[in-house]
Design goal:
Blueprint: E1 2-7, H1 16-27, E2 31-36, H2 42-52, E3 57-62, H3 64-74, E4 84-89, H4 95-99, H5 106-119, E5 122-130, E6 137-139, E7 142-145, H6 147-160, H7 167-179, E8 189-192, E9 199-202, E10 204-208, E11 214-216, E12 219-221, E13 233-238, H8 243-253, E14 266-272, E15 274-287, E16 290-310
Parallel strand pairs: 1-2, 1-3, 3-4
Antiparallel strand pairs: 5-6, 5-16, 7-10, 7-15, 8-9, 8-15, 10-13, 11-12, 13-14, 15-16
């Protein structure tokens, strides 16, 4: 088996030593070539090139942004030419890898991945898709309009200034934006399901392809606990943002069961094939923890059995 190992040197928890240990372990078992990303979008380009060059397997070592780039690169290739894919965790949250049930430790995840290769274990998952230029983009676990996208945007700004994207940084920025009214000041969003009137005056909207939405350190955060890789998309939206309501919703997100389908201050939709989210003015938007700019409308679709992954 011929494999391309794509690593992101800027990933939060990756070190040169961990990369060397993993490369040695993989190279002792499979024929391995290695490449490091140098700029945004490079992982997708490397994945496409690997498919065109006839590689059997692409392995990524990085965070959820690296996973998203590789997935979008691979899905631009016809399925018959598409190599298998395996993801190793090297970021701060690693939601996609952990939601698949793989170890959060990269060395342990490497062992689990090699075992899956030997046994032929594969998993097929649904993906989310948004419209846009050049055919749009796929996302693996979440998309967000509003508050969480504002957080992602600010984290990216801080990273460009040299700060590491740690869970503590995300929490600090999220709390700061909340206290400044970043959640409660703008009920400009609406969700429209096919054949239904739009639900308006929403403060924040989140779309998930699995649960959890994210992790706060070891703790899963679950606004849509029924969301699964083998179902359609789920949506969570805030309808009220007073302090008591928001605190109660956050408490439920951190609970073992997650947020119930119905409750005060929010709405949820479960297992949906397609829908549209609009805003009365441009709002920050993100997928898989990557800020995509400010938008006023995004069309969402669930793509069944879109990705085959070694797991």
């Amino acid at each position: 088996m011929r494999a391309l190992f794509i690593s992101n040197p800027q990933a939060t928890t990756m070190t040169p030593r961990s990369r060397e240990v993993i490369v040695r372990a993989l190279a002792s078992d499979i024929k391995l070539d290695a490449a490091a990303t140098e700029y945004r979008g490079h992982a997708g380009e490397l994945a496409r090139r690997a498919a065109e060059d006839g590689y059997d397997l692409v392995i990524s070592f990085g965070g959820d942004g690296t996973v998203n780039e590789v997935v979008n690169g691979l899905l631009g290739i016809p399925e018959a030419q598409r190599p298998a894919y395996a993801a190793l965790p090297g970021g701060s949250a690693n939601v996609f890898v952990r939601a698949l049930g793989l170890p959060a430790d990269p060395i342990e995840a490497t062992g689990a991945m090699l075992e899956a290769l030997h046994t032929g274990s594969r998993r097929v998952v649904n993906l989310g898709h948004i419209d846009g230029p050049e055919g749009g983009r796929y996302f693996t676990f979440c998309a967000g309009f509003g508050w969480d996208a504002d957080v992602v945007h600010e984290v990216e700004r801080q990273r460009r200034r040299g700060r590491r994207a740690t869970p503590a940084l995300y929490v600090a920025i999220a709390l700061n934006l909340f206290l400044k009214g970043g959640v409660g000041g703008d009920p400009s969003l609406s969700v429209q399901m096919p054949g239904r009137l739009p639900v308006r005056d929403l403060y924040f909207a989140l779309v998930t392809n699995t649960t959890p939405w994210t992790y706060a350190g070891p703790s899963p955060v679950q606004p849509t606990p029924r969301s699964r890789f083998d179902l359609g998309l789920d949506v969570f939206a805030l309808t009220r943002v007073d302090t008591m309501t928001t605190a109660n919703v956050l408490r439920k997100m951190f609970s073992a069961r997650g947020v119930p389908p119905r409750g005060r201050g929010y709405l949820t939709w479960h297992d949906r094939e397609e829908f549209t989210i609009r805003s009365r003015r441009p709002r920050a938007f993100q997928i898989d923890g990557e800020y995509l700019g400010h938008r006023q409308q995004v069309n969402f679709r669930s793509i069944p059995k879109a990705l085959r992954i070694v797991a």
